Amino acid sequence: MGFLDFLIPGKKPDVEKLFQKANEERKKAQFGDAIKLFDKVLQVEPRHVKALLGKGSCLMGKGKFQDALEVFEKIIQIDPQNPNGWYDKGIALKNLGRREEGEEFMKKGESLKHGIAKDDLGRPL
Q: Which CATH number goes with the domain that contains 60?
């Protein structure tokens, strides 16, 4: 049973291992590879917020701000209390030239943050 078992037809992937590998690729700025792995996670668990955050981050890293915006909007629909979804949506909007609107979303994200705990992407909750 290995990491690449998800390539075997009919075999359900280990979502957590797949997510960890995707996140490692994201941290190395291997955005294309990371997106493919995050997509594999999302095929099994479409509401996996951490994978959506990672995918959105990678899309922004590739300059695909409109695609990232759509991912962050999905996160907000799934988990309206997730500060990173709001904040990252603001960043995407600012990069699309919608500065004022972006700043409002970033402020909303900041207002939702609490404590010093960090998510799997290393950002404060």
A: 1.25.40.10
Distances (CA, A) of 52 to 10, 11, 29, 98, 101: 24, 22, 16, 22, 22
Does 69 reside within a domain?
Answer: yes
Residue 121 lies in a domain: no
* Residue span of the structural domain in which 36 resides: 15-112
Of 1 and 65, the one with more pLDDT: 65
Domain count, the chain: 1
- Residue 76 forms part of a structural domain: yes
pTM given for the model: 0.81
What pLDDT shows up at residue 10? Answer: 56
**Residues near 117 by Cβ (< 8 Å), separated by ≥ 6?**
124, 125
CA atoms of 79 and 33, how far apart (whole Å): 26
In order of 2, 50, 101, the CA distances from 98 in angstroms are: 45, 25, 6
Structure tokens at 25: 């690729």
Per-residue pLDDT tens over the stretch 20-77? 999 999 999 999 999 999 999 999 999 999 999 999 999 999 999 999 999 999 999 9
